[in-house]
Amino acid sequence: MTSFLHVPCAILEEKKISDNFRADIISTVEFNYSGELLATGDKGGRVVIFQHEQESKNRPHLRGEYNVYSTFQSHEPEFDYLKSLEIEEKINKIRWLPQQNAAHFLLSTNDKTIKLWKISERDKRAEGYNLKDEDGRLRDPFRITSLRVPVLMPMDLMVEASPRRIFANAHTYHINSISVNSDHETYLSADDLRINLWHLEITDRSFNIVDIKPANMEELTEVITAAECHPLQCNVFVYSSSKGTIRLCDTRAAALCDRQAKFFEEPEDPSSRSFFSEIISSISDVKFSHSGRYMMTRDYLSVKVWDLNMENRPVETYQVHEYLRSKLCSLYENDCIFDKFECCWNGSDSAIMTGSYNNFFRMFDRNTRRDITLEASRESSKPRATLKPRKVSTGGKRKKDEISVDSLDFNKKILHTAWHPKDNVIAVAATNNLYIFQDKIN
Amino acid sequence: MFPKGTKRKFSDSGEEPVSSGDQVPAAPSVATRSLTSSYSLQRQSLLDMSLIKLQLCHMLVEPNLCRSVLIANTVRQIQEEMTQDGTWQIMTQALAAAQCPTDRLVATEVLCRQTDAAAQAGQSPKPFSVGGLEEGYHAEEVVMEGDVETEVTMSTLAPVSPQLSSASYLAGPFVMGPCWDEDEEEEEEEEEEEDGECEEDEEDDSEDCVSEGEEADRDHLSPDSRTGEQVFGTFEIKHPAPPPDPALEELFSDVDPSYYDLDTVLTGMQSAPKMGPYDLLESLSSHGPTALSSSSSCRSDLNELDHIMEIIVGS
């Protein structure tokens, strides 16, 4: 991990998916368990999967590239006639299942429906059928004079994606999270007010395990913003709220986990209280560490690492873009204050990464407490070049190469990032472009 | 939002002076809050902005519940603070005193100012006065009883000027009415981030604003005396001391599970089915002649009232 901070990223590969701007805004990025595959979902309901190629002999000092492996339309726009509402096809989340055979499985979800997709390869084709020709036409049975056994011949690799399960009609509100359980048999899905537990084989039923909908909707003051299963304990999950709290629940305790086992909240600093305090405390993402001992939450201005054994405050807090604190009013006006940034751990849990504005993203080393700001843009980096650390100037004097807060482009936001589970490879989604960075191998 | 380049200082709160026009300071102590007019201006402005956003929430095809909840909580927080200050009460009383008899029917005036009212820009915030009424409203919006399905329809947007009348808003549930926007350009600018449908809706609304009467026998809010750049919805308040989350009644009563009533929104009317024209007539008749007492400023309103009645009765 450290090489990202000490020696900036070596390689920039930019994958532009297509030219249709609106449909291609990337809405989720996720590596699979081995890191061999990288899935992206976009606003148009498409899923694009990249595969890691083996290192090329020509360039042994580089890791292999990621190239497009499969593309398919996961969700289509729908119309809810009862409510006269359009249901967006935008993919909110993709989560891979652990690989159990040659095929790959992933869950993808939009606001209302979750689908289990099977992605499988076909590189052989049977030839020599008795009853039909090579082009599929039926042979005249009277012409068949002898029997032959079809043989498998190699063919060009074809990657097929097929929907194996569709989990629908279980959510009234917009789904914001899905998370596969460590038992690899169940998964949870969370919307604004409820969390459901599903079995991967059963599509017509799910268990509701959390319901925070008040009897009187007028009393609604808090919504669920994210949820995740514990990576090791299949009975534990957490969910975060718009009030900056995290609740850890144990499914063994009760069928309905409305009463949390643990409640994580940092007391508010009264000196920094403003009308925006609640909004900026709203948690946009929660992620367990790979070890299962910590969890990380992202609110508008910071990332916090919590020890699961300590509920009253986080163990580490990292400021992502504190210089925005004085701009909250403008950010409220242009709605940027409601942007939901994600965060991620590296494979060894020694570093964390999250996005910011102006196509900046930030990485923090938990051990050395160093941090770095990098930019994902074509203009600032040539392919195969090293990335230069960026800095936002907050004081009066702006040094050369620094960018002032007022020059930041708030339309260029990096909401989705992913870190390879083992290697120092990161995927950063900047609007409709996907950037993959790797560190130098010396 | 705030005029750029204006240096803002807090006289008393112990905050560092603000160097840009964007900062909203942390809340000073209760005792000093009401004394700081810039703070209350900013607070008012934030309130306005929040209410506009809430209206838009209701108009979006895909209303985002999290965002709505956060904005509503902000509104409630401001409301609570203003109630503590006593500012809320002041406004309620000022309005009640200044207004025509408030138990008249067709409630709220829509704030649509002529641009030349920018002359007011130099004025400090003042309680709403009858004089303000004469400065060129267009009529109305009919406001619903708080218990009824929300009527949040639309309000057009305009950059919020800091010149607010803090007396313009009354405590209680917030109810927005439609209004005609004379500055459609500004509206569009404001809205360009929003879903394109919003703009269409609001333009449609402006045709349909004069709408069915709904009952409104309560204090109604008059628009504040802001300058002409601002167009804003009107608020309808039930009682000065807000019960828990009165504002949320309207906001969320139709959020679950149907997020909003599209028809209502598009036609700029409140959910009519809840209150038929006959209820309206009853309400009318229950108000004595005092309701129509002659204040010259009410004249124009009465004409509008007649107009609306005609529509309701279908004559």
TrEMBL record, chain A:
SMART domains: WD40. The keyword Repeat applies. Keywords: Repeat, WD repeat. GO terms for molecular function: protein phosphatase regulator activity. GO terms for cellular component: protein phosphatase type 2A complex. Residues 376-399 are annotated as: Disordered. SUPFAM superfamilies: WD40 repeat-like. Coiled coil: none annotated. PP2A consists of a common heterodimeric core enzyme, composed of a 36 kDa catalytic subunit (subunit C) and a 65 kDa constant regulatory subunit (PR65 or subunit A), that associates with a variety of regulatory subunits. Belongs to the phosphatase 2A regulatory subunit B family. This is Serine/threonine-protein phosphatase 2A 55 kDa regulatory subunit B.
Automatic annotation (TrEMBL), chain B:
Residues 39-86 form the SERTA domain. It comes from the Eukaryota. Residues 1-29, 175-227 are annotated as: Disordered. InterPro entries: E2F-SERTA_domain_protein, SERTA_dom. GO terms for cellular component: nucleus. Pfam families: SERTA. Residues 217-227 have a biased composition (Basic and acidic residues). Residues 180-216 have a biased composition (Acidic residues). This is SERTA domain-containing protein. It comes from Gasterosteus aculeatus aculeatus.
